[in-house]
Automatic annotation (TrEMBL):
Pathway participation: Cell wall biogenesis; peptidoglycan recycling; Amino-sugar metabolism; 1,6-anhydro-N-acetylmuramate degradation
Protein name per its UniProtKB record: Anhydro-N-acetylmuramic acid kinase
Gene Ontology biological process: 1,6-anhydro-N-acetyl-beta-muramic acid catabolic process; amino sugar metabolic process; peptidoglycan turnover
Family stated for the protein in its record: Belongs to the anhydro-N-acetylmuramic acid kinase family.
Functional note: Catalyzes the specific phosphorylation of 1,6-anhydro-N-acetylmuramic acid (anhMurNAc) with the simultaneous cleavage of the 1,6-anhydro ring, generating MurNAc-6-P. Is required for the utilization of anhMurNAc either imported from the medium or derived from its own cell wall murein, and thus plays a role in cell wall recycling.
Gene: anmK
Gene3D superfamilies given in the database record: 3.30.420.40
Reactions accelerated catalytically: 1,6-anhydro-N-acetyl-beta-muramate + ATP + H2O = N-acetyl-D-muramate 6-phosphate + ADP + H(+)
Coiled coil (UniProt feature): none
NCBIfam families: PRK09585.1-5
UniProt keyword annotation of Nucleotide-binding present: yes
Source domain of life: Bacteria
UniProt-listed Enzyme Commission number(s): 2.7.1.170
């Protein structure tokens, strides 16, 4: 199959900014370069357009206003303003990326545009990512595939996680053998479990960085717990953790997905800043460990990506609770920061070619199916 040059765009539940990544893929395999030590070199250039405090405030208000959404087309409150902003911010991110890398729109075959999730209610067959794919395509002059979750949710799937098919491609390219776990810790954490025979199961494990970030923002004004240093100085509240982990979500058999707003940092209540951070960090790690209750084969190796891979205290706790080899994505030539953006580039090419992007073992949809809506500049 012919390789295509695809850009993936991701703005996650952490609300930090727009990730941009370029890869070459045919929808099945990704083009990689292997370094002398056997690990992969970076798949392609990456870029980032950070959000300002004002931008994040708008998106947080949009999340609140989205509670009034009863149909996918609803845009109550500030959602129209937020959707226009998301589209423009992603356009600016791509324009800056192309300029920085000496590329033109003609060099890119397709863009995978995730948008910003404001509603995720698969039980109501609804998942809403704001952002106008058609407007983005017209502005950039590049075909755009967006709305990648809707078809799956409409067919009864969870609409998440979407990245496992890309995780599989990377694992094949890396030549990994044996049971492997790939953990992406964004605002919400999700795991892809690949058995030694190649079978895959994937699901959201629970909160990722979102609760920790919200706690730090409220208590200190800082957007995150840098390196997990605040949590490392605190002591987890064990009774609170025990209560949190009996939430029905953790006992539910996968596939399953989690809305960012199902849990709140305010659960840490009147704890000190350090103890609250320690408790919420431990919650993320122990929720991942609970995921092993559903693993058909316990991974002997885990690869950790996403913002959580930079949280040293969280990685330490994962080492303790998972009792397996833990490697960050960056350490093996993958990308901790841009893995999801790369995945959406891969998904866009699969969508163009009519290949499935969701599967019964990853989202719970009845049969493997493709998804996404294609917009071309002249549409």
């Amino acid at each position: 199959m012919t390789m295509m040059r695809a850009i993936g765009l991701m703005s996650g539940t952490s609300l930090d900014g727009v990730d941009v990544a370029l890869i070459e893929t045919d929808g099945e395999e990704v083009r990689v370069v292997r370094s002398p030590n056997g690990y992969l070199e970076p798949l392609g250039p990456t870029g980032y357009r950070g959000y300002t405090d004002e931008d994040r405030d708008l998106l947080r208000r949009a999340l609140v206003d989205s509670e009034g959404v009863t149909a996918r087309e609803d845009r109550p409150g500030c959602l129209p303003e937020a959707e226009a902003f998301v589209t423009a911010a992603h356009a600016e991110a791509v324009e800056g990326f192309l300029s920085d890398n000496g590329l033109t729109p003609a060099d890119i075959d397709v863009i995978g545009f995730h948008g910003q999730t404001v509603v995720h209610r698969p039980d109501q067959r609804m998942s809403v990512q704001i952002g106008d794919g058609a407007a983005l395509s017209r502005r950039l002059g590049i075909p755009v595939v967006s709305d990648l979750r809707h078809a799956d949710v409409l067919a009864g799937g969870q609409g998440a996680p979407l990245v496992p098919v890309f995780h599989q491609a990377l694992a094949r390219a890396s030549g990994f053998e044996g049971a492997l776990g790939i953990l992406n810790i964004g605002g919400v954490a999700n795991a892809t479990l690949i058995a030694a025979n190649g079978e895959v199961i994937a699901f959201d494990t629970g909160p990722g960085n979102a609760l920790i970030d919200d706690w730090m923002r409220e208590r200190t004004g800082r957007p995150l717990d840098d390196g997990g240093r605040t949590a490392a100085r605190g002591r987890p509240d064990e009774p609170l953790l025990a209560w949190l982990l009996i939430h029905p979500f953790f006992a539910r058999r996968p596939p399953k997905s989690l809305d960012r707003n199902w849990f709140s940092h305010k659960l840490a209540g009147q704890l000190s800043t350090e103890d609250g951070a320690a408790t919420l960090t431990a919650f993320t790690a122990r929720a991942v460990a609970r995921a092993l209750d559903h693993a058909p084969e316990i991974p002997t190796r885990w690869i950790v990506a996403g913002g959580g891979a930079r949280n040293g205290e969280l990685v330490r706790l994962l080492n303790y609770h998972l009792r397996a080899e833990i490697t960050t994505a960056d350490a093996i030539g993958w990308s901790s920061a841009y893995l999801e953006a790369q995945a959406f580039a891969h998904l866009a090419v699969r969508s163009l070619k009519g290949l499935p992007i969701t599967f019964p073992s990853t989202t719970g949809v009845r049969e493997a199916m493709t998804g996404g809506v294609l917009a071309r500049p002249d549409d």
